[in-house]
Amino acid sequence: MSSNLFDGFTPVNAKAWKQKIQADLKGADYNDTLVWNTNEDINVKPFYHSNHFEDKTLHHIPTSQWFVGQSIFVANADAANKKAVNAIERGAESILFTIAEPSIAIETLLQNIDLSSTPIYIKTQFLDAEFTNALNKLPNADKISVQTDIIGHLAETGNWFTDLSKDHEHLNTIVNQQTQLKSTLSVDVSLYQNAGATIVQQLAYALAHANEYLNHFNDTLKQDITFTVSVGTNYFFEIAKLRALRLLWSTLASEYNIPQTCNIVAYPTRRNKTIYDYNTNMLRTSTECMSAILGGANTVCNLPYDALYHKDNEFGERISRNQLLILKKESYFGDVTNASDGSYYIENLTEQLAEKALDIFKSIENGGGFLQQLKDGTIQKKIKIAANKEQEQFNTGELVLLGTNKHPNANDRMKDDLELYPFLKTNARKTLIEPILQKRLAEQIEQDRLKTE
Fold this sequence. Notes:
The protein is an alpha/beta fold. Helices cover 44% and strands 11% of the residues. It has helices at 14-24, 30-34, 77-89, 106-110, 129-136, 150-157, 164-177, 190-194, 199-217, 235-256, 280-295, 314-330, 344-366, 370-375, 378-395, 443-452; strands spanning 36-37, 43-44, 67-74, 94-99, 120-124, 144-148, 183-188, 225-231, 262-268, 299-301. The strands form two sheets. It has an eight-stranded parallel β-barrel with strand order 3-4-5-6-7-8-9-10, surrounded by seven helices.
């Protein structure tokens, strides 16, 4: 008896598969019945076959083992340190600090944390080269990544930290002088996803955003760039999105003769999260984290199910961290790398997303570059069009959020449970450009329900 289970079966080519499907449809149109079109303008077929790749090379996109991340906001160095140490004891493998003020004592913040085994990411809500220099002098500084992104700050707030000249002056100092740190430059792609951009737009804007930094530093950049990505609920497309990002970055970086390493930090999106029937958020974040892992994220940091409406709390953070630990230790997502390699469907999606994103990237460069198109409002306009289309799909029920626009629980009461304001906040202020606003799909329907409680 053959040791190969499939030796007894005759290979079936793609043409034969399609003929069988058409016969089973009994006259129904193949394209109308089984092929569906996405917001990325990709036609998804009912099956994919090796015949579709006979004249193409399948992409092997190398990834490494991923880390369970824990996000911590730092207002007090000692309190944040204790929280980080406790999180590590409970399974966190990487810590992501968001620091509010440059006066934070960095030695206190990092005490009792083994930097040789625990990668640290630091995002500051300020721009200060001296603060970064202090990090650069620490032992094991090569395990610390500082997420400096002045363009992302401009896109999100509408203003530079100070002004264009001073921001770039600080950026030059941070990037060129802090040579011991693992990375000092980052690109915040999550902003575009949480504002409603399509996957293709997210990839194109990530590439164009990064290209502004590459143009600025030309051939002097010798370190990795960290990409912060939000992962949505379209499972296979999100896997392909991260693979396409690595593919696109490798292509762009090779043109500048710089390191092609693409360091990805992934979070679940906030765009599809809800305050009503909030436990469904755990289902959403579970599949989103799975997409991030299979797509090849280096660090995955989960979003607590109650993050929209509760202040940081031990229970929500423990549950979110344990979701990742279950995936890694009990579901064996930590035992295999490059799990999506060889999937014809994901390979096809990766290729199409990359090609479409590259076309948009080229049009942005031909239009003066990413900064120019931010300044003239082109990027904001494109995102609004995509966001409004998705919002309309949600409003009509074509896009479903269980417990919100389908099968809502009329007995849910949330008004007295809101510790945080869960909706888009707008403050009238003067900005250089129109900021890119992040907004959840369920906001209007939730506000209407709160009024009637």
